[in-house]
């Protein structure tokens, strides 16, 4: 199959509207062609007049590990063009940076999860482009989580840098499709084009969204493989808890744990509470010692979520429910466990991070309510999932 960048480079007719235009590139380390050439190098080699580069969270180089660690602007050492950070002093392009180009090419590998901030950056770019009369092209890439939809929809008033709009946690769209949704729902007047992929088959084994003939390149430092991308719509919620999400290990955001956790007991309680929620994956109790971040240097007992190999069932796996169930099990086993962290999460002040992550307090309230059952959460969430499935279908560009 071909990604958007590969189609743009291979077809002069696709590139022709860029002739005579100043072009900016929004990119990160996973912005590579099929032969692993970075998109910036490939575009310049193809004669595209790239006059500026923009970088999202973690930077163009992808060198910054954690949330709320900002990237500076700099000058590209090879080509001498300005590189503007959209996760530094600003989150939205400034007027000065918008004046450096006519068309912005967005070539970002996404993970298919609302909280992954590249989609918020896409929204901000589209809004700025509408304001300044600039064009935006998305060079589309696969959603590695595929088409499944899961999670509560972000509630009004809970918009944030990790909550770009009223969608569930696992949204099932590509970046190009999300751009269409933003334009439609926000009523933006912007020149927009998607350079579509060729041959993307999100229901095809073994990748189910990710074409396994393509190498996986980390789009951010703690996104090391496909298993992480599949688990992430659930494991990202760990960032709002005192449980380690595996930062400081070689398998971040695929596992969780803490020094005082009894992993085997948690797994057993999860099976007791809602065994159907655990379909499509395997849970394995493990030990790990983070080299940085939460519980650094401490021996942790934890659970590794394996959504891979013979254990993976794409249609059955529901990572948001798996992680929610883990929290419910911890709370059932230890009602006073200090589960929720309280700090400014992605610059959202005065709100618990777990609520910011979920776009409202409903999930936390379900976890903390000892009388609330898995069926209660299912009933609430299923309505959101069905509504989003109907709404988002109109914006799909690939097999429906």
Write the layout of secondary structure elements.
Blueprint lengths: L3 H7 L1 H4 L7 E5 L11 H7 L4 E6 L18 E2 L6 E4 L9 H4 L4 E5 L10 H15 L2 E5 L35 H12 L4 E5 L30 H10 L19 E4 L4 H11 L8 E7 L11 E7 L12 H15 L19 H6 L3 H7 L5 H20 L7
Parallel strand pairs: 1-2, 1-5, 2-4, 5-6, 6-7
Antiparallel strand pairs: 3-4, 8-10, 9-10
Question: Can you put this structure into words, describing what you see?
Answer:
The chain is of the alpha/beta class and 400 residues long. Helix content is 30%, strand content 12%. It has helices spanning 4-10, 12-15, 39-45, 95-98, 118-132, 175-186, 226-235, 263-273, 319-333, 353-358, 362-368, 374-393, and strands at 23-27, 50-55, 74-75, 82-85, 103-107, 135-139, 191-195, 255-258, 282-288, 300-306. The strands form two sheets. It has a seven-stranded mixed β-sheet with strand order 3-4-2-1-5-6-7, sandwiched between helices. It is globular, with a radius of gyration of 21 Å. The model has no long low-confidence stretch (mean pLDDT 95).
The strand count comes to 10
Termini gap: 18 Å
Q: How many helical stretches?
A: 12
Cα gyration radius (Å): 21 Å
Q: Main sheet? A: 7 strands, mixed
Judging from the principal axes of the Cα atoms, what is the shape?
globular
Structural class: alpha/beta
Helix/strand order: HHEHEEEHEHEHEHEHEEHHHH
Q: Estimate the helix proportion, in percent.
A: 25-40%
Beta-strand share of residues: 5-15%
Average pLDDT reading:
95
Low-pLDDT stretches are none
Strand order of the largest sheet: 3-4-2-1-5-6-7
Question: What are the salient characteristics of this protein?
Answer:
12 helices; alpha/beta; 7-stranded mixed sheet; 3-stranded antiparallel sheet; globular; 400 residues
